[in-house]
Specification:
6-stranded antiparallel β-sheet, 12 helices, alpha+beta, single chain, globular
């Protein structure tokens, strides 16, 4: 995956979307085309994708009209049909109820110790779908800056804002997931970064969104940290433990929502969480590369949290760690590298 960096200063969502679509028209088009083919391979025909994407886009327009406007402006500037870009932004909703998977691992430690917690996440997905990724620094309102990583066409994913609030993102699966076309979960992550300055504000904001697919948003601040587990059946707030650690993979931690968990049988989410529990330090601060090394543990490159694609499988069944990323809450910055935790520990991180 090639990462492209962009800084915009406009507070107008349409102008921001136009800037993305104009500068990165080829990338927006390429990702939209690849997702359309991916959906078809999974048995979701193009007319059905269009229907689901438009349904979620209307939910987005009602809940966050500025994000819908940004998406439409991006599509127009890139010369792509609006619904195709919306389908990338709502790909979790398009896939809800399908035999989809997600293998991301999030770690927060040092929470509640009077300083900004340290974080790290692997983003595991299909390399065939995401040849390009976007690092975007922008200004949603005067005096408020956000730095995030996302896919072209998706409003948000992982990021941090100038108020010292960060968001990590893990897909979840619940029996209540459906094709109802709820607010895209990627847009919820984005709006938290754009508007929230505290954990309580994030919780209140997320609670207003009607979702049709499940996700965990781990909201990190110096004053409070919790994973907000979302599903159509409800939301749960899972706080950091007494040692200041909060670990999340791809199954529900809340006991009530866990009763409806339908994570795929071949996932290694439980194994990854068990591994992280044994290797994640309770405190002290570590540089990003040392953090990545610690999270591999003695297994090194063979750690279960370092996901590599199986070349014997078809592209839509190949999963790999495309990005390893940590948040610096004090500096409103992202430490990132393409590849696994082990590769990051050896080659280091870039900063955005």
């Amino acid at each position: 995956m090639e990462l492209h960096a962009l800084t915009t200063v406009t507070t107008d969502p349409r102008a921001r979307g136009e800037a993305i679509g104009t500068r990165f028209a080829a990338q927006v088009r390429r990702v939209a085309e690849r997702y359309t083919r991916h959906f078809a391979v999974l048995g979701i025909a193009e007319p059905r994708v269009r229907e689901l994407a438009l349904r979620s886009h209307e939910s987005l327009r009602a809940w966050a009209p500025e994000l819908a406007a940004e998406s439409d402006a991006c599509a127009d500037a890139a010369g792509v049909e609006r619904w195709r870009v919306a389908a990338v932004g709502a790909r979790t909703e398009v896939l809800a109820g399908k035999d989809a998977r997600g293998e991301c691992s999030t770690v927060v430690f040092g929470a509640g110790h009077g300083a900004a917690p340290q974080t790290m996440q692997t983003w595991d997905w299909h390399a065939s779908l995401v040849p390009d990724g976007l690092l975007h620094r922008y200004t949603p309102r005067p005096g408020h800056t956000v730095a995030l990583f996302t896919e072209f066409g998706a409003p948000g994913k992982i990021g941090v804002n100038s108020a010292g609030l960060g968001v990590h993102f893990n897909i979840l699966f619940h029996r209540s997931d459906s094709d109802a076309g709820g607010v895209p979960v990627h847009a919820i992550a984005r709006r938290v970064l754009d508007e929230a300055e505290t954990l309580d504000q994030a919780v209140d904001l997320v609670a207003t969104a009607r979702v049709s697919a499940s996700t965990a948003l781990t909201v990190v601040t110096a004053a409070g940290t919790a994973s907000l587990e979302l599903s159509p059946a409800g939301m749960a707030v899972v706080p950091a433990d007494a040692d200041g650690r909060l670990l999340h993979t791809n199954h529900f931690l809340d006991a009530g929502l866990a009763a409806g968990d339908v994570a795929p049988e071949d996932t290694v989410t439980a194994q990854r969480l068990a591994h992280l529990k044994t290797v994640t330090p309770a405190a002290p601060a570590l540089p990003a590369a040392a953090r990545a090394r610690a999270l591999c543990g003695d297994a090194g490159a063979d750690a279960v949290v370092c996901l590599r694609p199986d070349p014997a499988k078809p592209p839509h069944e190949q999963w790999g760690t495309l990005l390893t990323i940590g948040l610096d809450l004090d500096a409103c910055a992202l430490d990132h590298t393409t590849g696994t935790l082990h590769e990051a520990s050896r080659h280091g991180f870039d900063r955005f």
